[in-house]
């Protein structure tokens, strides 16, 4: 059983409630868990109204390495997503309250100053039946708040570091509701919905527990892949330093957990963000009976005044019409996919591979907007690519793209990739 680490205090007296080693497997470390369950014991108590730090593993629990080989992505075990730090007790928090969580800072480890982005069949929302999706891994190096990748050339941008997962523990009643509705959806769709239902394989709680309780948590615990009413894997790319997140409390003490740190992510995150191990600094306050007061049905958040903003964007729109010309009734996901596919094809015209374009639409600070919903039967979504992140001009021009420009992109370092037959095993969460 892993040995719990002692709390550390930095020179400015901000306590670190959980410490991790980003180079070691998540299932060997204390104070980590990979399921949601109300009976997972809290590992520390949050000082309400005071800053505290939490060290977090990347979502895979250190399965991915900084190299030019994608073998680790092929063998990535998604049954163990995500490796979360916590849970933490919030003194005084009671069911019906809301936690106001101030994101004071999110940073990578100084000696682990890199992240990665992944594509794989069955993993993302832009898998295209007409085209093959390869397993790929791109490594992104961090320089302060800027990042670039040797595997996606001629691009650099400012990050918006954030925790992809912030969540409170469900009550037993909430947990039963999740399992019931997701199981019913799996049956109704003959498994095509891809819901991550409870599974003992991959479950982990890095604390000493009685065998009976451990087995119960592993058997009943909700998977962390989808975001739900409690927060969880909601992947809000705008929840960077200076933002606030509001989460409901379902059990006494709230049992707040955090993890899945990202250096940057697009709106929509069609495949993985730039995943990283990171250090999150938070401050938590309680809004008594906030669920009723705020009319809360799902998480709320407040954007940050310090978020990097790119003003000049080339925007693509999508309608809810499928590729065969069939009209759907306001299918928002289809509209998003249509906008994204058009953007990907445009980037491919400059020499980027389909996977490199896919990565950019997930990792870069891409802005997605719901443009119009009232004009039935279409639902209109736009996707804006910042022009300033490229070191060449991507704007439309009369004379088209020169062969020299294409060669400039194509001649960059190869993207580590592997072809696989069919979908990846356990590939429905990130």
From TrEMBL:
Q: Which InterPro entries match?
A: FmdA_AmdA (IPR004304)
The terms under GO molecular function for this entry are: hydrolase activity, acting on carbon-nitrogen (but not peptide) bonds, in linear amides
Superkingdom of source? Eukaryota
* Coiled-coil stretches: none
- What is this protein's name? Formamidase
Please report the organism this UniProt entry assigns to the protein. Answer: Kwoniella bestiolae CBS 10118
